[in-house]
Amino acid sequence: MSFALDVFPAEVWLRIIRVACADTSFTARTLSLVSRDIYHLSKPYRVQSVALLGIQRIFSFYKALTSTTPHNYRRVVHLFIGCPSLRLEHERLKGSSHDNAQVLAIAQELTSSAQNNSNNPLTAIDENTLGRCVQRILSLVADTLKTLHLHFIGFINIDLLPPDRLPFLQQLVLYGAYAPYQIRRDTALHLPALTSLRVGHHNSIPSRIISKLGVLFPTLVHFSLVQSMISTVHFNDLLDMINKLDTVWPEHGGPNSVGGGGVVVSRRLVLEVDTMERLFGNASNWYDQLVRVVATTHRVEIVRRESGWTDLQKAETEWVGETRKWVEEDWSIDSL
What we know:
- Among the domains are: 1-46; 48-159 and 313-336, no CATH class.
- The chain has 16 helices and ten strands.
- The protein has helices at residues 3-7, 10-20, 26-31, 36-42, 55-67, 70-73, 86-94, 97-110, 127-140, 179-182, 206-210, 213-216, 232-243, 245-248, 286-294, 312-335; strands at 49-53, 78-82, 147-151, 171-175, 196-200, 222-227, 252-253, 265-266, 268-274, 300-305.
- The protein has an eight-stranded parallel β-sheet. A two-stranded antiparallel sheet has the order 7-8.
- Helix 2 runs antiparallel to helix 16 and helix 5 (55-67) packs across helix 8 (97-110).
- The chain is globular, with a radius of gyration of 22 Å.
């Protein structure tokens, strides 16, 4: 046994490794190179939290999941998946023949329509193929996944949430124009443990999202709507939804409510307003109007901050910070 493990018992190292590995998975991969003992101790946390930016990483991780045993590679608890746009990804892949060939091979596994076109083989990688890959990843890690961030800014019609249950998912972030399409259904999604939902950078009328919260996410207690560069029509719709919030999304859930399970919950709406943007239509007093309407209810909170989530690198950095908090809280609970 190494000197480090002689000084501290394995239980202490496991606690340290668990928190240290709450990042993009870089720390876990690095720890595995330290020594044989650390390699084995860090193995359960190697994919505790994973960040996948871009098609190449998304497809490669899917390949790794399907080619390794569940014990080694499917214990993902916190997952960040982001992709800017197909056009940008195609341009990047053109510069790497190795990545290009690898991604195309996986794409052909995912769909029979992904045939190698001699003129432009990258056309095999479309929204359907990418969406199917993400869905399969989520299905493979469903038994351990607790938090999920999906940042697909340049996509509209892509479908990312799997038809299977995500039984332990507690926090979901949908960021991009595609977000409203994930919640356009009329029946509850298979997310029985979801308590927190965050939706941003979308172009949908707020009422189309808020009015479906109770049906699609019956256990939800915290909904955060990131609004920036909102049009006058959407802004007026948002004000109307705040006034009707108790009707469209009742504050309390109880024994007779869908998904209430006999436990009374208090539901809150958080509006994240970008400090760098303004309302379309030159309405300079839009923020004052919002404050006045929000003041009429105790269920709505306004948070002003500079929104940088269109920058995937910045979004990933924020996600790492949030993930560390989750892991530290789990650690505290386990210590009780």
